[in-house]
Amino acid sequence: MGIKIMVIDKDKKLLNWLSETLALAGYEAYTCTDEDSSIEKVFQLKPDLILLGFNKPAKSGFFLASELRLSAEHIPVIAMTSFYNKAECLKLIEVCNVRRCLLKPFNPLDVITIIENFSQLTESALREERLVLAEAHIS
């Protein structure tokens, strides 16, 4: 079973493109345009990573990131936006617990590289956790 990635954005073309890109790279991609049901879908799917669209006129990205921070903080969230500059992205990272920002337009390699970095961190953390459990079991 591959890494599960939830992509939440209002742009259906972007969702289709990302879904295809992620599937070709061997990831399980799930998409959602409906902000109201996205939190519920996150709990159902239990993704390993979330790509979340932030649109400046709407507060929905902030709301969803805040909800995820409270209820699913262990799942890394990567912001996708074309409305924020790098300084504003740093604020998103600080305020919304977003791990990274992808500035639109981005290319497939940007997305895959970021996901691979997160998956390596996840695998490393799992190995470390197994070592701690094994050491605890031996003692």
UniProtKB/TrEMBL annotation:
What InterPro entries does its record include?
Bact_response_regulator, CheY-like_superfamily, Sig_transdc_resp-reg_receiver
**Is the keyword Cell wall biogenesis/degradation assigned to this protein?**
no
UniProt key word Phosphoprotein: yes
Q: Gene3D superfamilies per the record?
A: 3.40.50.2300
Domain (Response regulatory): give its ranges.
4-119
GO terms, biological process? phosphorelay signal transduction system
Q: Name one Pfam family in it.
A: Response_reg
Keywords assigned by UniProt, alphabetized: Phosphoprotein
PANTHER family per record = RESPONSE REGULATORY DOMAIN-CONTAINING PROTEIN, STRESS RESPONSE REGULATOR PROTEIN 1
This chain belongs to the protein called Response regulatory domain-containing protein
Tell me the organism. Answer: Candidatus Ghiorseimicrobium undicola
Q: What is the lineage of its organism?
A: Bacteria, Pseudomonadati, Candidatus Omnitrophota, Candidatus Ghiorseimicrobium
